[in-house]
Write a sequence for this structure.
């Protein structure tokens, strides 16, 4: 228990340091955050136009889209605000930057992940919050569930991206591939789940858990279903476990020097 | 007491062989050819506490690989190692509390924040007692003379200032061994001197064991009493620095510019003139045959001197000479340097 | 040996220029395993998008109980997206590169070389474009074939014209992209512009929704701007060939291309002038 508390304290310290470090970025901060906002906004515009014409699709109306975007944007934003190194894991492994963390007496994975805060996710965070405002769900329970689901979604996003990054332990530099995988997840999570049937559904619950990042949270906030919330928590915990196991396995390979990039 | 003990340490890497161009890459993808590279053939080494060791060798000699095995980042293909009583790759975390490292090319300090913040972070990383940490920090700040810029963001510091802060950071937790990898790289003459003095002071005060890699002969000469030279994954020289100097740093290159044109009949005994111009001359001197001060006295007697430089031959030449002198056996396979440089990240 | 005999006898002629630029294209093609990986990745993207779109649109057609939406059948709609995504995913992505060269000053060096800077980038990017087209078209067409079968309104005879329009579409896109890169002369970070351009293209260019499906007001704006000529025009003609539309689109493309090239040249000259004053 004491060990766990020490680790948590350490992570909090890292986060504080990150915040301070990012305050230095002020200038391009805003322009990049704005860019992110626009990025999310355009897909939003797509759905506005779509529903303006077609009214509803497989049980989804514009209302559900607001909620979906809110959760995914906030979740994604939270993931990379705190675990800012998750998208960089592939590259860090490839460039041997793990060595720094290996020579320090702290568990490598959390130290690695929380050592960076992506300052430009403010765009995603604010977008998520604003999108939520459009849903009109202001009762305290809904808001609480929204925030809770976003956090769980964030955990799943960060774990997934990191696990994808671990491909670098096998193929040298998995930068591109982890990016594609993350993109796949985001793309699928932003569409009404009713569009997908059969095998694809299974795929989206397991290999690329987009369902847990978008569809399931939407369901939870709409129906206040505690069973689904439980399921979401299980999914989040599983994703963390998988990430940890994969990373440990990969680390053993790294230490044997069988990673392709070798530096004498 | 022996703090580092290596016995027949051995490391082989298997890498994919890749021929250049598109076809080569496609071939490597579908029908990969594997090649074994013996990065470290057999290294045996013993370090006593408080030794200041220079660990040198050309690129691709196996230096980084050896250090990685010593710090537990890599595990060997064979052989044994003990660092402070720990087996590095098996007890990496425990060992990490007692070692510090500064890598010239890989900074530890957070770039946008002042060094003090990274120091505080390290206190957390190493779980240091608060009061003890403050005392230690004050001591190191004093010893390294970095008090003035503790609050300045690292990105605003000069390289010399940054390196001194890096060393401070690496010593906060009171390690017994310090690994320094190219600490003076890129520093100007003064900064380099200051850094060397700081390292020496700390070494003397704390009886630190220091493991230094450097391409700078000056670093080796001024800091280290003992030099280990490795090449092709083996130790080819392990002795006092004075022995190294005596045997191999005997040549000096002396450049002199006079205040007046040199006569045509200008010549020197027991020294080779490499190049001459109207005002300047470059001389090669074997200090065993003629001491430096003797030659310089003769030059000063000849004409007023405007500029004088005395240089060591480059480290690579020294090592090449050692290599030739020791007559070590050449490994049959193509150079490790060549192959691994292809895969160098 | 005098210096003049080193140069080829037809230096400066059209043939020599053609040789020069095709050599540039070829060299970039040869160094290109990176291109193949990149193209493979784009292939994965299109697979993703076409699949998701097929689900979205077949559900939409069913929900609306329609066989034709915006003048296209489901079959045509999906193949429309295949072509539109083909262009978007295979395009020459040059603005980042140009921005980099402006920033680090290597632009100053290339200004001295005897080839047109922008043409150089165009031809060196072509290798990548071709490889990407191969992968993206293969993957995209495969998914479309599985989902809705072959394009019912496919007209082989129209293909040369469609290729022409598509080539012009690529060129317009390239010029705009290059222009954004050149904005680095004036702005610290042009990534925001790049992003905005891409997103505008998505909506007003017809990548996310065929223009005919958009509300009338939006459609009118879209048709006034050149973005629809990059994605919408070639894709629409590909699935629903129409002689008059072809002529109209072609004319518009040529006009806009001329305008954009003019602006680009102006931008380049102003920026280069700046470089020479400020010393890079």
């Amino acid at each position: 228990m004491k060990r766990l508390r020490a680790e948590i304290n350490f992570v909090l310290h890292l986060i504080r340091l990150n915040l301070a470090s990012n305050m230095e970025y002020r200038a391009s901060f805003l322009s990049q955050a704005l860019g992110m906002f626009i990025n999310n906004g355009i897909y939003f515009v797509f759905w506005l136009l779509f529903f303006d014409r077609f009214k509803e699709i497989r049980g989804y109306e514009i209302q559900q889209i607001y909620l979906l975007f809110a959760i995914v944007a906030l979740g994604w934003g939270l993931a990379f605000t705190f675990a800012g190194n998750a998208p960089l894991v592939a590259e860090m492994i490839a460039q041997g930057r793990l060595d720094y963390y290996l020579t320090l007496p702290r568990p490598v994975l959390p130290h690695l992940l929380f050592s960076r805060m992506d300052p430009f996710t403010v765009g995603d965070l604010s977008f998520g919050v604003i999108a939520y405002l459009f849903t009109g769900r202001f009762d305290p329970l809904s808001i609480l569930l929204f925030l809770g689901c976003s956090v769980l979604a964030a955990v799943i996003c960060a774990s997934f991206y990191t696990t994808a990054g671990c491909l670098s332990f096998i193929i040298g530099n998995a930068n591109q591939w982890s990016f594609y995988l993350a993109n796949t997840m985001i793309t699928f999570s932003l569409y009404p789940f009713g569009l997908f049937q059969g095998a694809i559904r299974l795929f989206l619950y397991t290999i690329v858990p987009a369902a847990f990042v978008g569809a399931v949270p939407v369901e939870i906030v709409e129906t206040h279903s505690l069973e689904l919330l439980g399921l979401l928590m299980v999914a989040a915990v599983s994703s963390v476990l998988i990430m940890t196991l994969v990373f440990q396995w990969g680390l053993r390979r790294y230490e044997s020097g069988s990673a392709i990039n070798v530096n004498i | 007491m022996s703090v580092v003990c290596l016995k027949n340490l051995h490391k082989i890497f298997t890498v994919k062989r890749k021929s250049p161009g598109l076809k080569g890459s496609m071939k490597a993808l579908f029908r990969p050819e594997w090649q074994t590279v013996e990065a470290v053939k057999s290294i045996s080494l013993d370090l006593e506490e408080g030794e200041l060791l220079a660990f040198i060798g050309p690129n691709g000699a196996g230096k980084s690989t050896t250090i990685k095995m010593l710090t537990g980042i890599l595990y060997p293909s064979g052989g044994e190692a003990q660092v402070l009583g720990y087996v590095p790759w098996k007890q990496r975390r425990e060992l990490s509390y007692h070692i510090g490292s500064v890598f010239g090319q890989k900074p530890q300090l957070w770039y946008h924040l002042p060094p003090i913040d990274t120091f505080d972070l390290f206190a957390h990383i190493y779980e240091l007692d608060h009061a003890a940490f403050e005392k230690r920090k004050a001591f190191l700040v004093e010893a390294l003379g970095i008090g003035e810029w503790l609050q300045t963001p690292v990105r605003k510091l000069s390289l010399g200032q940054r390196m001194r802060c890096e060393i401070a950071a690496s010593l906060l937790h009171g390690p017994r061994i310090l690994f320094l990898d190219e600490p003076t790289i890129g520093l100007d003459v003064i900064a380099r001197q200051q850094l060397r003095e700081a390292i020496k002071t700390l070494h003397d005060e704390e009886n630190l064991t220091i493991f230094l890699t450097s391409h700078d002969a000056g670093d080796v000469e001024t800091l280290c009493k003992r030099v280990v030279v490795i090449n092709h994954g083996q130790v080819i020289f392990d002795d006092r620095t004075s022995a190294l100097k005596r045997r191999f740093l005997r040549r000096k290159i002396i450049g002199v510019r006079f205040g007046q044109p040199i006569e045509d009949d200008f010549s020197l005994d027991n020294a080779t003139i490499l190049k001459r111009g109207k005002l300047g001359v470059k001389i090669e001197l074997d200090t065993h045959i003629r001491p430096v001060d003797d030659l310089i006295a003769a030059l000063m007697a000849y004409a007023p001197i405007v500029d004088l430089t005395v240089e060591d031959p480059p480290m690579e030449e020294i090592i090449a000479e050692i290599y030739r002198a020791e007559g070590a056996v050449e490994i049959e396979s193509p150079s490790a340097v060549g192959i691994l440089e292809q895969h160098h990240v | 040996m005098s210096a003049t005999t080193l140069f080829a006898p037809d230096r400066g002629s059209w043939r020599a220029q053609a040789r020069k630029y095709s050599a540039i294209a070829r060299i970039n093609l040869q160094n290109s395993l990176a291109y193949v990986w990149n193209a493979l990745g784009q292939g994965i993207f299109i697979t993703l998008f076409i699949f998701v779109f097929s689900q979205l649109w077949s559900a939409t057609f069913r929900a609306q109980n329609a066989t034709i939406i915006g003048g296209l059948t489901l079959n045509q709609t999906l193949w429309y997206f295949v072509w539109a995504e083909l262009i978007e995913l295979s395009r020459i992505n040059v603005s980042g590169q140009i921005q980099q060269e402006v920033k680090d000053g290597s632009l100053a060096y290339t200004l001295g070389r005897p080839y047109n800077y922008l043409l150089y980038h165009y031809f060196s990017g072509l290798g990548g474009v071709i490889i990407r087209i191969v992968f993206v078209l293969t993957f995209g067409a495969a998914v479309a074939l599985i989902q809705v079968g072959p394009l019912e309104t496919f007209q082989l005879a129209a293909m040369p014209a469609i290729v022409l329009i598509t080539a012009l579409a690529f060129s317009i896109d390239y010029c705009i992209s290059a222009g954004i890169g050149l904005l680095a002369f004036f702005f610290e970070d042009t990534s925001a512009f790049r992003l905005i351009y891409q997103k505008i293209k998505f909506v007003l260019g017809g990548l996310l929704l065929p223009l005919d499906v958009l509300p009338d007001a939006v459609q009118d704006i879209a048709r006034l701007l050149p973005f629809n000529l990059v994605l919408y025009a070639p894709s629409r003609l590909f699935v629903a060939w129409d002689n008059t539309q072809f002529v109209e689109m072609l004319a518009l493309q040529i006009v806009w291309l001329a305008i954009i090239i003019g602006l680009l040249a102006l931008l380049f000259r102003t920026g280069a002038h700046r470089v020479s004053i400020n010393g890079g």
